[in-house]
Specification:
One of its GO terms (molecular function) is actin binding. This protein is an all-alpha fold. It contains 6 helices and no strands. It has 2 domains: 48 residues, no CATH class; 56 residues, no CATH class. The protein is 50% helix and 0% strand. The longest helix has 17 residues. The protein is flat and about 65 Å long.
C-alpha cells in the first residue's frame, strides 16, 4: 500500500513561497500544478521519494574514495612537548590500531588487494 503525500503540504508550500517566511521549507517541496489541472498532477508516494533519494545518496557514495585518518592526541591538556604514554596507548587500543599491528605481525595481509592475496597464497 502506498502512502500518499498529504494535501496539507500544498497549503504550507504555497504559503511559504508567497510570503517568503519559510524559504527553506519551500525549497524542500516541488511546485504543484494549479488546482484546476488535476490531470497533470503525478502521484508520488513517500516510498518512491525515499527510493529516489536513497539511490542518489548511494550514487554519490559510490563515486567517492575512502580515506581514513586516525588522529592521536599526545596529551589531554593540548600543550606541545608533553607526551602521555597511557593516554596514547588507550587511544590506539580503542581505535583498533594495536589489533591491526598484531594481525600484521602474525603474517596476515592487511593492505593487499584480494588478487594479490590470492597470488601470494598460490591458489
Amino acid at each position: 500500500m502506498r502512502t500518499p503525500i498529504p494535501q496539507q503540504r500544498h497549503h504550507l508550500e504555497s504559503n511559504s513561497r508567497s510570503t517568503n517566511n519559510l524559504p527553506f521549507v519551500a525549497s524542500l517541496f516541488p511546485s504543484f500544478p494549479d488546482q484546476g489541472s488535476k490531470s497533470s498532477y503525478k502521484f508520488t508516494s513517500i516510498d518512491a521519494r525515499f527510493t529516489q533519494q536513497l539511490g542518489a545518496i548511494m550514487e554519490s557514495l559510490n563515486t567517492t574514495e575512502l580515506h581514513y585518518i586516525q588522529c592521536v592526541k599526545p596529551n589531554m591538556v593540548h600543550k606541545p612537548g608533553r607526551f602521555e604514554n597511557l593516554n596514547v596507548i588507550q587511544q590506539l587500543r580503542c581505535g583498533g590500531v594495536l589489533e591491526a599491528i598484531r594481525i600484521g605481525c602474525a603474517g596476515y595481509p592487511t593492505r593487499h588487494i584480494f588478487y594479490e592475496v590470492l597470488d601470494r597464497s598460490g591458489c
